[in-house]
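Hey, I'm writing a tutorial for new members on how sequence and structure tokens pair up, and I'd like a real worked example in the thread rather than a made-up one. If someone can provide the structure for the chain below, I'll link this post from the tutorial.
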Amino acid sequence: MKRRLLAVLLTAGLVLSMTACGGKSEESASGSASEDTSAADAGGEADAGEADAADDAGGADAKDISIAVNLKTLNSEYWGNVKAGCDKAAEELGIEVTVNGPDAESEIAQQVTQIGDQLAQDVDAIIVAPCDTDAVSGALESASGEIPVFFIDQDVDFPGKTSFVGTSNVDAAKKGGQYVGEKIGKDAKVVIIYGQEGESTSNARTQGYKEGLAEFGIEPIAEMSGNNVSDTAKAAMEDLLTRFNNEIDAVLCMNDDTAIGALSACQDAGVADDITIIGFDGNQSAVELVAAGDLEATIAQQPSEMGYIAVMNAYKAINGETVEKEIPIDTIFITKDNAEEYLK
């Protein structure tokens, strides 16, 4: 990789210098011990000297470092916020960070192709939010043990993984199920609109919702895929309203786009005021609807911070520092009570 070539050239130059001058080399700054990082250490905002500290600890020149990022898609507010965090870290560090993603989260083959193309550019690290964990593991096989491999938002059981940066989807979604249980009680008629069939993030959030509901003796009366997008989620909600004769008390959604689609169906049916709708991600558009009283709540991830921390830690790994195997990003449960403050 580029940094190995740089090291060889530097070593050759040093040998020639010592031969000509008969001098002794100075001790490398990279000989100092490095400390593990955590989400708290990495922080949502960089310390003023973070980039300088990383330069002092590592051997690679920042201007020569290239990090590839491949997200599930760039065509959504949430993933756009993740990209913004990556871009912010790149600017602060003075490194090249290329962010890409397929046209939609369902475009698994496109993501695999993009990852292959990015690895072919001889990058120093790669950060991936996988559309499909098995497919992505295969695409990353050549990078295992060669460069730092980070997963963001969704973890993968990958032998060459350096670290995972993201939210516990089970724990976060559990808050939504608990909220419905506390608000409505054990007789609540609840439906879940999940994401792509078989997708691990969707499965984890569905599990969390069910665990939270189970604490109040509630079992969902139906589960249906919204495929992560508003239009499909709206169609799913229309079907559920027809099937249950509009007698639904709450809808727990895979993400905010799903919640907005479900809300639209409920508004068209004239039952929006009677149904508690909970989203997931904390997108600005959804939080504004929470503040207006149209959506009940959203479970806010911190996507910009997630992208920022992932790039910062990938940079540290490139420079030989140890990073935590898991770097958790907290979630915030947003209701009308704190929506305005969150928007600020």
